[in-house]
Amino acid sequence: MHDLAIVGSGIVGLAHAVMAVRRGLRPVVIDRHAAPIGASIRNFGFVTVTGQGAGGTWQRAMRSRDIWLEIAPEAGIEILQRGLLVTAQRPEAMTVLEAFSRHDMGRDCRLLTADAVRADYKGVGSTLQGGLHSPHDLRVESRTAIPRLVQWLANHGVAFRFETTALAIEGTEVVTPQGRLRAGAVVVCPGDDLSCLYPDIYARHAVTRSQLHMMRLSPPGFDIGCPRMSDLSLVRYRGYAELKESEALAGGLAREQPQHLEAGIHLIVTQGADGSLVVGDSHHYGRAPEPFYDVAVEALILDEFKRVLGIDPPPVIERWLGTYASAADDLMYASPDDRVRLVVVTSGTGASTSFGIAEETLNDLFGTETSYER
Ligand SMILES: Cc1cc2nc3c(=O)[nH]c(=O)nc-3n(C[C@H](O)[C@H](O)[C@H](O)COP(=O)(O)OP(=O)(O)OC[C@H]3O[C@@H](n4cnc5c(N)ncnc54)[C@H](O)[C@@H]3O)c2cc1C
Known about the structure:
The chain has 374 residues and is of the alpha+beta class. It has two domains: 4-43 and 143-203 and 331-366, FAD/NAD(P)-binding domain (3-Layer(bba) Sandwich), CATH 3.50.50; 84-137 and 208-326, D-Amino Acid Oxidase, subunit A, domain 2 (D-Amino Acid Oxidase, Chain A, domain 2). The chain has 13 helices and 19 strands. The radius of gyration is 20 Å and the shape is globular. Residues 7-13, 30-33, 36, 38-40, 42-44, 46, 48, 165-166, 189-191, 193, 196-197, 212, 214, 281, 322-324, 345, 348-352 line the site of flavin-adenine dinucleotide (FAD).
């Protein structure tokens, strides 16, 4: 009998395991694959605070960022980059950044003139109008961070059952082909698996899947300083997009970059320890997204890269697709049974918010303290 059974070894499941260990609980984590290979290792590893939706998502991101900073050194995870630079390529984008800097969420962020950006950063395009620097954000390399988190958890008494599918949850028992696992409570974190566990709840929340094109580029020969975003991000990230000032920007983008908007493209550029750049992304929605990488989408992403960084993109050395669960709200949280919680991040924010979410879930199941706006 385990204190807690967690289905899913992506960042949402692992964050619950970390917070359970911190409470002195001994959880078991169950995953159908031999290792975590879902959204959580395919992402940028960008723990993004600035730009998250005002209220609960921003608060959870802030809390998660703090927990990442505590857990990373313990688990041997390197924080590769800190902060965020959003550069504006149009006056309307600068207006959004100015409005954001006046908002509560922008209080520690700095507005920068074009000259100030050029003085501090290499790789800025000729259309630069200025930028906003946030000190809050950080970046890890997910493909190493997630396995290290698994190892840290295993060293702290967490049992892992890989290659074990949870077929059903009955009471607080997890039914698997290899037998039943009994637990005091169950947290189910299956990500974008819409049809195995609780398909009715997924359907009620109209959860679908979002598919993203991602690539790694050779080192450009300089340090980009911190992760970058561009005008297109300002109409996608709710923290900016919900400001009334973003309407004019959205109109301009619709006229000037309709293909980028159509493919759900916005630019994130992060940099690894070896200098290589992780660049993305696009968004195509549907329960069964095309499994084929589209080079036309890649060309649009690299077009935005060139405009924003002002250099020809270095050679692409890796390409991949990723999917995550997507719905109108950032988070789907349900209680299918008294001691069972279904926790699914339904936006591209799982690396940024999972620790805060996990803290809330465990408070809900084992005793309360924190809660954020839903
Ligand atoms: C390309 C890409 C870039 C992204 N960039 C960022 C970013 O920079 N910052 C950010 O915050 N977020 C980002 N995201 C979003 C983030 O990665 C996701 O929100 C997060 O990884 C979701 O975590 P998860 O644990 O729910 O899902 P997953 O990592 O997909 O894990 C779910 C796990 O559950 C297991 N599972 C499912 N059903 C069962 C079952 N019945 N039995 C056993 N096991 C089961 C699966 O095998 C899987 O391992 C990005 C996503 C993608 C795809």
